[in-house]
Design a protein that fits this description.
It is a single chain. By secondary structure, the protein is mainly alpha-helical. It has one domain (2-97). The protein contains 3 helices and 2 strands, in the order H-H-E-E-H. Strand 1 and strand 2 (69-70) form a beta hairpin. Helix 1 packs antiparallel against helix 3 (72-97) and helix 2 (42-61) packs across helix 3 (72-97). The radius of gyration is 17 Å and the shape is elongated. The termini are close together.
C-alpha cells in the first residue's frame, strides 16, 4: 500500500505546484496588463498564455467586468485556492491514511 500512498502523494504535490504556478502567472499577467501597454511584448505574451488556461474559460462563461476592471482573474485565483484546499489536501490526507 505504501506504493499507492507515495503515488497519490506525488500526484498531490505536482498538482499543488501547478496550481501555485498558475496563481503566480495570473497575478503577473494582471499586473503586466496595467504596466506594459504593449500587448505583444514577449514577457507579457508568455504570462498571458499561462493565465489564459484558467482565466479564458471563466471569462467566456462569466464575464465579470465593471467598467475597465475585469474581476475574472480574482475569481480564477479563488477557484484555484479552493481546488488546492479541497482536492489536493484530500489527496494528501488519503496518502497519509494509506501508509
Amino acid at each position: 500500500m505504501f506504493l499507492l500512498s507515495n503515488f497519490i502523494g506525488a500526484v498531490a504535490l505536482i498538482l499543488r505546484i501547478l496550481i501555485n504556478i498558475e496563481i503566480i502567472a495570473i497575478i503577473i499577467s494582471a499586473l503586466l496588463s496595467w504596466i506594459v501597454p504593449y500587448r505583444h511584448h514577449p514577457v507579457r505574451t508568455f504570462f498571458d498564455g499561462l493565465a489564459e488556461f484558467v482565466v479564458g474559460p471563466l471569462r467566456r462563461a462569466l464575464p465579470l467586468r465593471a467598467g475597465i476592471f475585469d474581476f475574472t482573474p480574482l475569481l480564477a485565483i479563488l477557484l484555484l485556492v479552493f481546488f488546492d484546499r479541497f482536492i489536493v489536501e484530500s489527496l494528501f490526507d488519503l496518502a497519509r491514511m494509506l501508509r
